[in-house]
From TrEMBL:
The keyword ATP-binding does not apply. Residues 52-176, 532-657 form the Peptidase M16 N-terminal domain. It comes from the Bacteria. Keywords: Signal. Belongs to the peptidase M16 family. Residues 209-387, 680-856 form the Peptidase M16 C-terminal domain. Residues 492-511 are annotated as: Disordered. This is Peptidase M16. The lineage of its organism: Bacteria, Pseudomonadati, Bacteroidota, Flavobacteriia, Flavobacteriales.
């Protein structure tokens, strides 16, 4: 996922001037907009080989530091896979001058955020902090670059081995289709090719890795001469250079790392493989063709090909597989070109029970249609139109700019490669798209995978062979005892005392952007913030009600409303509406929440008026397309049925039913049930629309490079045409009336992890205590440095993460403690949660309270950076009628919190003896133990939250 998100930021680049030419029907860009597109930088190199790139951005009092190493899983070898990703974790543990678990805590204490990511071709670490903490970040990053390896002990290594293995279980082994990439890469890339294995590594390799293996890998690839440092944000250049030289300049070069040469592959023949998936409920077919590496002429054209084949209602795959044959609800095709090689993939998750032979046949028919219809200039235009907006979104934060500059430097040798990248995109023509289709796809061998639910081998594509997927066996938990070394860590010499953290200056003062408010004559409350850094606008129209207005007997109507309104208008077919949005370079989406229906949009400033014209047309001129409703219902039913295989979705559904009870609408999923969705008719949707869509219960929020007058001018049509009506939103009584500790278990046979949700009904967002309890919860589980995460992940290695939180709206929400843990640690993990919640009521230390205050107050410097974060703030203000200065009031709550108040809140809102304890996992191995753990009751439930009689179950 991390790689995909990065790729979107960097591929989607183009100049305003170019798009103004391409999109002939839209307004021309201004010279001012064109000038904004560049990301100015200064690059230089330290004597030790570290590339340094500086980008000043004084729009917010923050800085980001990103360090990208030229090492990903492509630098590993067979039998020793997963090391790059394992090191991503190891570098967060400790270094010679930064004690255990202090990386996260130090940055959070400064009001910052941090993380890292590993993909096939690279590893990146990053921090975003208030500008006064810039030196602190350099101290931390330089210490793990040059002063880490002596701290890599057997105990620390064993812990992170467990954490990484849990990440694999959570993301791969416990997920539908989780093994797909493994099967594809093994078949597509020959043994020994750097892309033959997965980034996360083989479980056996992770288990067999030794400290010496890891030290050798670190020495080879984590030196300054294999890294790029990017500093972006509000800093003084001379001061920054001085700090970089001080902290990084003395780190010695390590082994020289030769650049890897492209290694594209070919297939002599088609390979057809299948796998029975323990978690899948629907069959999935993937077809993958080898292509070539990134930044090549053909790679750009292949990106366009994927978009044209699969995205939107004009796409051949959509026309054949969805519209004509009703075999699936969604089509996906994309090109993935990386540093060494690439592949082009078509991925189709079929409707339940569909034979994958028919999917394969349908794909071939779509190719025939594509060859017949070809590619039009308009197709090329609409794709390029969206790239401009995506580009601006990618550089809307200092971190986004850091990633962009680092990636270009590492993979293109030039942070300013953006100019050439833009030219390469500009040059793509319809002829190029057809050429690469013929060169790489048409009649060429491919790898095909058929993943089908257990027991449904009749659905696999014919002539497929069984893939050699290795499934982990669930065993009794045996803790590997590793003796902590008492040997004192040998300190690497330095020119100054690195054991003393830098002194941070005063944190930036809270500076809430100026906002404006007004109301339209039809009752819509409008709020806005003008932010001029990039020429885009983000907006949302929130209509209250949503799932709250659903009839329990026809649950899911509100959710279907969100979908049907986006399927054309009275004057535009679904295909025409989609194309109009695309040609504006805009995005408009509509979705349903428990308490609202939201229209969310992102567009260029110069196209805001036309975008709002489309929003008004969508909202006020529904098409009510019966054919599209049939497809939407099929898609929704598929989604519901597939969710039965996702332990996290099952847990959420059952948890809400347990806590809210059958008489509350929140105990019913927003998406509906299979039975309720099948029963919904177009008349049900029209009735909901006519009764419940009104400006009187709506708010409009807008953030971007646009002023109040322009916004109100472009809202005029919506104001004049949308008449208000009376809407009554039902109220459902809800209270915390639990009086015992109940253990509920939902069986997912052979699950490699158990999903744990613990809690009860707490309080609404509107309660005066709500923000104070969020503050109180912070050290329990509100961050990475929360007690439950430090124990379950960092100390025990049982999970990839553990959290606690309070949720709430106008309706009382929940307190929830949650995690996904290794199956054979389920019982102990539940007990740890129970014990830590109880112990927390005894109070926290003055140091922990100070940490909480620093983390929450200082982080406000990062709170107003992007248009998206500002839009969220406006929505929160309008939804809960908060004062404009509510963030200042929250700061006061934090500053004034005492140890006594903290303890009082914990005792008032945390009672482990009255919580519901839900476990979704493998009942055969984990259920019985809970009968002996002192719970007031222990029940086995099905996936819908109904009790299962133990006499009817074999455990």
């Amino acid at each position: 996922m991390f790689k995909t998100s990065l790729k979107m930021s960097f591929v989607a680049l183009a100049t305003v001037a170019f798009f103004a030419v391409s999109c002939k029907n839209e307004k021309a860009a201004t010279a001012e907009e064109s000038a904004k597109l560049s990301v100015p930088f200064e690059k230089y190199e330290l004597e030790n080989g570290l590339d340094v790139i500086l980008h000043q951005d004084k729009s917010d009092p923050i800085v980001s530091l990103a360090i990208q190493y030229g090492v990903g899983s492509n630098r590993e070898k067979t039998g020793r896979t997963g090391f790059a990703h394992l090191f991503e974790h190891m570098l967060f543990q400790e270094s010679e001058n930064v004690p255990q678990d202090q990386f996260f805590k130090t940055i959070q204490d400064a009001g910052g955020t941090l993380n890292g990511g590993t993909w096939k071709d690279g590893t990146v670490y990053y921090e975003v902090v208030p500008k006064n903490a810039m030196e602190t970040v350099m101290w931390l990053e330089s210490d793990r670059m040059g002063y880490l390896i002596n701290t890599v002990t057997e105990a620390a290594f064993e812990n992170q081995q467990e954490v990484v293995q849990n990440e694999k279980r959570q993301r791969v082994d416990n997920n539908p289709y989780g093994h797909t990439s493994w099967v594809i890469d093994k078949a597509l890339y020959p043994e020994g090719h750097p892309y033959n294995w997965q980034v996360i590594g083989e479980l056996e390799d992770l288990q067999n890795a030794t400290v010496e293996d890891v030290k050798e890998f670190y020495d080879r690839f984590y030196g300054p001469n294999n890294a790029t440092l990017v500093l972006a944000g509000d800093f003084d250049t001379a001061e920054a250079k001085q700090m970089i030289e001080k902290y990084f300049g003395e780190i010695k070069r390590r082994q020289e790392v030769d650049p890897l040469k492209p290694q594209p592959v070919t297939l002599a023949e088609t390979k057809r493989l299948y796998h029975e998936d323990n978690f899948a409920t629907a069959p999935q077919l993937n077809m993958v063709w080898p292509t070539l590496e990134q930044y090549t002429e053909d790679a750009y054209a292949l990106d366009f090909l994927g978009e044209i084949l699969s995205q939107g209602k004009k796409a051949p795959l959509y026309k054949i597989l969805v519209k004509e044959k009703d075999l699936t609800a969604r089509t996906i095709a994309y090109n993935s070109s990386n540093e060494l090689a690439g592949d082009f993939q078509i991925s189709i998750t079929a409707n339940n029970g569909v034979d994958l032979d028919s999917i394969e046949s349908g794909i071939k028919e779509a190719f025939v249609l594509f060859e017949k219809d070809g590619v039009t200039d308009r197709d090329i235009e609409r794709i390029k139109a969206g790239l401009e907006t995506q580009f601006y979104n990618g550089i809307s934060s200092v971190l986004g700019k850091s990633f962009q500059l680092a990636r270009y430097n590492v993979f293109a040798g030039d942070p300013g490669f953006i100019t050439q990248d833009i030219e390469n995109i500009k040059k793509v023509t319809k002829e190029d798209v057809m050429r690469v289709y013929n060169k790489y796809i048409k009649d060429k061998p491919y790898v095909m995978t058929s993943f089908v639910p257990k027991g449904q081998l009749n659905l696999i594509a014919e002539n497929s062979e069984k893939a050699k997927v290795v499934e982990e066996e669930i065993k009794e938990n045996v803790t590997k005892k590793v003796e902590e070394s008492n040997t004192e860590i040998v300190k690497t010499p330095s020119n100054f005392d690195r054991s003393k953290p830098p002194v941070q200056g005063p944190a930036p003062e809270l500076n809430v952007p100026e906002m404006w408010n007004t109301s339209l004559e039809n009752g819509i409350k409008v709020s806005g913030i003008e932010q001029n850094e990039i020429p885009t606008v983000n907006f949302s129209l929130v209509i209250e009600g949503g799932h709250l207005l659903d009839d329990m007997k026809k649950n899911g109507v509100a959710n279907l409303m969100s979908d049907i309104l986006m399927e054309g208008t009275a004057n535009k077919t679904p295909e025409q509406l989609e194309e109009e949005i695309d040609l504006l370079g805009a995005s408009i989406r509509m979705y349903t929440t428990d308490e609202s229906i939201i229209i969310r949009g992102n567009t260029l400033t110069r196209n805001f008026d036309k975008t709002m014209d489309l929003v008004t047309e969508i909202l006020l001129e529904p098409r009510w397309d019966e054919e599209e409703l049939g497809r939407i219902k099929t898609k929704t039913i598929n989604q519901i049925e597939r969710s039965d295989a996702d332990p996290n979705t099952v847990a959420n559904r059952v948890y809400n039913k347990i806590l809210y009870g059958e008489d509350h609408i929140f105990s019913y999923p927003t998406i509906g049930t299979v039975e309720s969705v099948k029963a919904i008719t177009m008349n049900d949707l029209k009735e909901y629309y006519n009764k419940n869509f009104s400006p009187s219960i709506s708010t409009f929020q807008v953030v971007g490079k646009i002023d109040k007058d322009a916004v109100l001018k472009d809202l005029k049509s919506l104001e004049e045409r949308w008449a208000a009506k009376e809407v009554s939103i039902p109220e459902y009584p809800v209270a915390n009336n639990r009086d015992k500790a109940s253990l509920y278990f939902v069986d997912i046979p052979n699950a490699k992890q158990s999903v744990i949700d613990i809690g009860y009904i707490a309080l609404p967002r509107t309660d005066a205590d709500f923000y104070p309890v969020e503050v109180m919860n912070y050290k329990l589980g509100g961050s990475f440095s929360g007690n439950v995460n430090l124990i379950l992940r960092e100390e025990k290695g049982y999970t990839y993460g553990a959290r606690t939180n309070f949720s709430g709206s106008k309706i009382p929400g929940t307190f929830t403690a949650s995690s996904s843990v290794r199956t054979n640690t389920t019982g102990e993990s539940v007990q740890i949660f129970k014990d830590e919640i109880s112990k927390y009521k005894e109070g926290i230390s003055p140091e922990d309270l100070e940490f909480t205050k620093n983390a929450l107050i200082k982080s406000n410097a990062r709170r107003f950076e992007t248009q998206g974060s500002l839009l969220g703030m406006l929505q929160e203000i309008n939804e809960y009628n908060l004062p404009a200065d509510y963030i200042e009031k929250e700061e006061a709550v934090v500053k004034n919190m005492t140890l006594e108040q903290h303890k009082e809140l914990a005792n008032k809102y945390l009672d482990a003896s009255k919580m519901a304890y839900l476990v979704v996992g493998d009942a055969a191995t984990q259920f019985a133990q809970f009968k002996k753990m002192g719970f007031d009751e222990v029940k086995l439930l099905d996936k819908n939250g109904e009790e299962v009689k133990l006499d009817d179950v074999k455990l």
